[in-house]
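From the shared-data thread, chain only:
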Amino acid sequence: MARVVSLQGQVDLSVGGQGAWHPVAVGRALCPGDVVTVRAQGRAAVVFAGDVLTRLDQLTTLQVAAPPKAGDAALGLREGIAHFISRLKKRVEVISPVVNALVEGTEFTVAAHAGEGRVVVAEGRVRASNAAGEQVLRAGESVAVSAGQAPRRIDVRPLDAVQWAIHYPVLVWPARLTDGGVLPPNVIEARRLALRARYAEALAQVGEMDDPVVRAYRANLLLALGRVDQALALVDALGDAAAPGVAVRAAIAVANNAPERAATLAARALALDAGDAAAHLANSYALQSRGALDGALAAAAEATLRAPENPVAWARRAELALSLSQLADARRFAQHALTLDEGTLRARAMLGFAHLLAGDLTLAAGELSAAIEADPADPLARFAHGLTQIRQGRLAAGRRDLELAVLLDPSNGEYRATLGRAYMGEARDARAATQLQLAREIAPASPTAWFFSAQRRLLAGDVLGAIDDGEQALARNEARLNLRASALLDIDRAARGAALASAYQRAGFDHALTRVAADAVEDDGAGAAAHEAMAQAYGDDRRLEAARVSEQFQRFVFGALGQSPVAPQDLLSAPPILNGPRVLSLDETAALFEPRTSHFAASAIAGTQETWGTSVMASTQTERAQAAVGHFDYRSDGFQPDGDVDLSATRGEFRLQLSDAMRVFADMQHKDFVTRDITQSFFTNVDSAIARERSDVVRVGLHTAPSATTSLVAVLGSESGRTVDATTDTLSVSFPFVAGNTAISTETDIARRELALRLDGAGERTRYTLGMTVLRGVDAGTQTENTALTVTNFFPPPATTTFTTTTPRSFRMDTRQHSLFGRLAWRAQPGLKIDSGLDYVDYTQTGVRRTPPPSALVEQLDARHTERLLPSLGATVDGAGTTWRAALIQGVSLDSVGKQSIAPTRFGGFDNRFDDPAGTRYRRLALGFDRPLGGGMRVGGAWSLRKLDVPNALCGVDCLRRWNERRHHLFFNTALSSRVGAEIAWHYESLGLHRVPLSGGFDRPVQLRTETLPLRLFVQLPPNWQVLLEALKVRQDVVNLSPSALTRAHAGFWMANARVAYAVPGGAWRLGLEVRNLFDQRALIQDTDLLSEDPRTPLWYPERAVFVSARVAF
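Structure, as tokens:
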């Protein structure tokens, strides 16, 4: 029927309510008719069948009544105060002498004393009644009742009704009497009992001694038992007679959210006795309440220096080291406290929490279980134990511990927010929403509840609500300065930004996605979730494919155990397939949620143009290792009559945690890729093109994190493979009756070896990245040119004669590459950040081509050597809610294994890795702004000019040709209602040869200007439908350089796209229908990379394309 789970002080039981009183122990079962009474200075917690949690204050008597209905609960509150949490949909009836409370799954407090009663509701619905009348109460409402009178409304905050249940810290541990005398044995015994959380017994041992230090200690013990009024009366009467008494007053001020008063009192305590450990601990709490965590840790360290034998001070020092993520120090300090007194339960809880944060779940569970067994009333130990069980896959047991933590400390907003998150994991959405709302009311400035609420809304399909809550979480990030150091707050901001980016992506608000993801990467360059969001943001930009796959690789490199694996298609650069890298997204929001011990996801797509594809990914993990494997297949005919795309990729990855701060990782990927005639263009110099590519990439690496803000990565990679390119072109022959064509086939064996290092770190006002890469590459192969001329004789007798010539050649290209890179972001003052960068590049590429005898010709293909020291500078200004950015960026585009680099892809808020030929030098000037407007609205834009010096482009061997690139955009997105959102944008992109000649020896496009005006409308329909409609205006201008003249072409058209998706809450499975070019607008477009002439991922579809997709994950 019920079980006692926690008690403090003396708690007695009368079996059946008939016999004598006997002391009750934790774990005792209660049956109908049993009566529990809590004596003075005591508290107890009881869990009833049906998940009804009850906390009893001192001088409270409760009888377990027989339930009126199976599964319900009936409780008789004879006298006192009880706080109830009922999570399941069961009726709970509380019967008291003056008022009865009938509820159905809620949180409320009932008080009954001397003919008076009170009911205060924190959550849900309660019917308060007696013989004179009744009132129906909802969250935040309360009534008072007198004997013989109907319940009447009163104004009482729910938290005010449970002040007695709030958890207060112990900071006084007397080492001597006020006059310096030796402590009497009873006070020494009281210290021992208090360390073991036996506060009522310790209070009895202290007695009524008049010594000011002992009286201050008595006040602190009263505070630990929730007797705030008595404690205040005692320390107020002491005045300034003893520093510990003033220290207790400072601790109460901290609990009452009065940081200035706490600081004043802590300073007074130090002035009274600078050698008193309690005064330094009070100063530690006061500094923490004002966000000075480093100062708080220093104050706790000073307390341990003043009183090295004080286990309370060492436990507090461990707690603050945990807040700063100094896990090794935290464990060392907690262990020292336990060495001083093995019964220091606060230190044991801190030790368990440190093991949890380090990923040592077995050790954490053991320490925390021991702490709970010794002190079942400690909410922190319950909280940490609940998190540990959830991480171990025991969600229900972990959630129960979190509920008990909330019951033991109902004023803790972080506990409630985390409980809401656990309810989300159990798909109990209403419960989750209520707890998150209560958490926001308790701590309105905290971002945690808003962050979890954004996740909840996204899981439930409320994308626009998730955007609003995510923006609220970002805006409140700095409010946790009293819990996290400023450098760690940047990491928190990045995690919140990554979650918000997922919502923007789901809504189709690509520009807002890019801006939020970019901020996340700059806030935490070693955060896997931020890199995943940035990779998704790059998905629609065809000039940033190298940046996209680099971000995906960095997501893998920096990902911890439990991180969802990277799918094979996510690491394919510029796949010329419909929807590009987003074709079969397997796990859109995995980074938002806790690690799982196993993971499986599968997707499939089918549609017009003979398109079909599948993707499968599975992973498993232990406490110290994780392995994953995935496979991807895609087939399509594309948009050309003879077009064909055949692509498959397989990838495996592995992580092994060697210690708290060190892990090794490895990944392997195989790709097979065949395309035929897939280029969409105004101008082409070939009639047919076939490309085949096979490659294998193998990498191993080491990741170590000496501290929470420092990360070092080393990666050794290898790439090998073969490409085959075959083109056929009709010859232009001026003689009649003569026709011909040229077929060129090139087979290339590719080999790359690369070593890369990267160091990330952060201080209070700085964040830096340092790194290096060394690469050796060889491209060697053969090229065969076949020319066929056919002469037709129309005179009798008719005859056809074909003349064929074959010219074979061999070639070899060698690449040697060394680079060093450094980035420093300095927050010069609030609202101003200065970015500086310095790159050193030493790049050499040499190549020769040989023709066999008899000509035995040797040609130099390349002889390029670039050695540069390249500084960059940027500034970010936050003013009046608007962020302004400016940057001057210099760099050299480099080669890398798999085109995936661990170097940063951004600088100063702008892109800094482009799909340029290796060896390209560039200078970029960029300006930008963005402004969140609240309510899901955001506006922003950017202007950019980049000057490129491209090697061997339209100029022969050992030369550079100047190209200019311009990229501008503006965007605005808004939530038109709770179900409808919209984004409108303008894009301008141009890439062109500087000073184009009137004619030349080449035949290729040399200037391309594209302007688009997308308008997107996102609609979410109940229960779980999402619709994205897009109208797109496109204009393109192309200039082609031929041997004889310049030719220009222009295209302008409107296009409509639509996407419909249905997903179950939680994302276990999802169905989608997508239609591109809805009205079948026939449009010719230039869809190639001007610098490499390679086909790109198609953004616009020259004919209607319809796809259906399905996804399942668990």
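DSSP finds 22 helices and 41 strands in the chain.
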